[in-house]
Write a sequence for this structure.
């Protein structure tokens, strides 16, 4: 009787295990650079002839994040605007200034030198991404209308360009 | 701690693609993959450049293609065999909607 009970139990267990299904989870890890737009910027209007993303001027600074999974394999190039993508008709010249700085890093030990080692050419700032992880870059952009004239009323849009280039 | 209420990402792989012979004579091909996690971008443009960022002629199904949010696409890029040693970068650039403030993103893979 006891043996019979064991046999029934074994068959039951077997029946249960026969219905178990392995669910595979597959993944593919490869080196990559991901650009994430964290915060689109907003121009403040501290006076009639200036548009500025500086917080003190009522603007919001654009922030872009780079995630890299391979060390010493990418350059980050961030270019602040040199023209409006959208604006009212402008009859005078606009003077553009801009700069980019590291605002945060995921690995302070290995990314701490990014800011001091950056190179700048024109409105473009280049960083050598020598470590894996995430880096947040913050840009400022200022547009000043010629001759301190007032910007015409309307919507103004300019874009920061974030580029990741494999070395 | 950094907290963001939203984040939009653009990624393209592989970082270091390679040219292979194609079924077409005198044309080489490479396969790329893109993933669009930018819900503010629907279209991407691809291009091939030499080391001085001069454009190199290439053929693909589309030079500008639609890639829905959270969609992945694989695409092939063909160049002439004679351009193989000149082709240095293959890049994808986000196409922004006019009038929408945003950050333009471009990712460039490199042929070694």
């Amino acid at each position: 009787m006891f043996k019979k009970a064991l046999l029934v139990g074994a068959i039951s267990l077997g029946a249960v295990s026969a219905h178990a299904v392995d669910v595979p989870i597959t993944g593919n890890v490869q080196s990559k650079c991901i650009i994430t737009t964290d915060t689109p910027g907003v121009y403040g209007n501290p006076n009639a002839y200036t548009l500025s993303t500086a917080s003190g001027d009522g603007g919001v600074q654009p922030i872009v994040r780079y995630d890299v999974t391979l060390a010493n394999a990418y350059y980050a190039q961030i270019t602040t605007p040199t023209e409006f993508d959208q604006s009212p008709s402008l009859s005078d010249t606009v003077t553009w200034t801009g700069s980019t700085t590291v605002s945060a890093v995921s690995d302070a030990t290995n990314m701490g030198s990014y800011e001091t080692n950056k190179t700048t050419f024109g409105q473009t700032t280049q960083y050598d991404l020598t470590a894996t992880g995430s880096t947040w870059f913050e840009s400022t952009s200022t547009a000043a209308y010629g001759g301190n004239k007032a910007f015409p009323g309307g919507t103004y849009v300019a874009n920061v360009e974030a580029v990741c280039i494999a070395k | 701690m950094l907290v963001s209420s939203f984040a939009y990402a653009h990624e393209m792989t592989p970082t270091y693609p390679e040219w292979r012979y194609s079924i077409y004579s005198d044309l080489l091909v490479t396969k790329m993959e893109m993933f669009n996690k930018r819900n503010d971008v629907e279209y991407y443009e691809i291009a091939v450049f030499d080391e001085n960022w001069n454009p190199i002629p290439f053929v693909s199904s589309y030079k500008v293609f639609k890639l829905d949010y959270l969609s992945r696409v694989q695409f092939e890029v063909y160049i002439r065999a004679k351009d193989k040693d000149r082709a240095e970068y293959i890049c994808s650039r986000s196409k922004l909607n006019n009038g929408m403030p945003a950050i333009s993103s471009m990712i460039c893979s490199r042929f070694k």
In short: The CA atoms of residues 29 and 78 of chain B lie 4 Å apart. The radius of gyration of chain B is 15 Å. Chain B has one domain: 9-110. DSSP finds no helices and nine strands in chain B.
